[in-house]
Design a protein that fits this description.
The chain has 210 residues and is an alpha+beta fold. It is 46% helix and 20% strand. Strand 2 (54-59), helix 2 and strand 3 form a beta-alpha-beta unit.
């Protein structure tokens, strides 16, 4: 019996553990693509592009002063943890007329951390609606062209999210009103997409060295 137990501990359990984690990598190692070719904004703001960037895309709306808390939640729970990763950025699409509020938000963010990768793009109402529509989600902008939800966009301008979320089924965006959602869901998904690109980079480097 002792020999059997030792064999199980030494050989069987490690194999089971390996299969479990290997399964996890296959199932959760890549964040599903929900929408392809989200509209870029270089025509609106030549200095800001979604292409070749890992972007958290948001719409603070005309009542941006009332959504400062959402920006700060996002800054503390997501941006501060990932902003040093290469090609990571926050992009907030803003209606014209919110420039003063945005400057206030930018200054307060800079007091908390290096906010250089926070980008604010000012656009006409119809441009904002067009960019949001290109996400093809089940969500809507409010009357002020804002939403508490933010979206993960990959380097090919694809919207990434969840197809088997335990609460929503297909999950297009993350509610910045909820610190728990940012902590328990969005942080995990950002980690996945960053790991995905790191793995691809390692593979490319290995191929070049061969």
């Amino acid at each position: 019996m002792k020999k059997t137990f030792v064999l199980i501990v030494l050989f069987i359990l490690p194999l089971v553990a390996y299969l479990f984690f290997a399964s996890g990598v296959n199932n959760f190692g890549r964040l599903p693509t929900l929408t392809e070719e989200v509209e870029d904004m270089v025509a609106i703001s030549p200095d800001v592009s979604l292409q070749d960037k890992i972007t958290i895309l948001g719409f603070l709306g005309k009542d941006a002063d009332l959504r400062k808390g959402n920006a700060f939640n996002l800054n503390q729970k997501i941006y501060k943890r990932f902003y040093e990763f290469h090609d990571f950025q926050m992009v907030m699409v803003m209606p014209y007329g919110t420039e003063d509020v945005v400057e206030s938000i930018r200054q307060e963010l800079n007091e908390l951390t290096d906010a250089s990768n926070w980008k604010f793009v000012f656009a006409k109402d119809e441009e904002i609606e067009r960019i949001f529509s290109s996400l093809q989600t089940d969500l809507k902008l409010d009357e002020g062209l804002g939403t508490p939800y933010v979206f993960i966009i990959d380097k090919d301008r694809n919207l990434r999210g969840r197809t088997d979320d335990e609460d929503e089924g297909t999950k297009f965006g993350f509610n910045t009103n909820s610190v728990a959602e940012l902590n328990n869901k969005m942080e995990d998904d950002v980690k996945i997409i960053l790991a995905e690109y790191r793995l691809a980079l390692k593979r490319n480097n290995a191929q070049r060295s061969n």
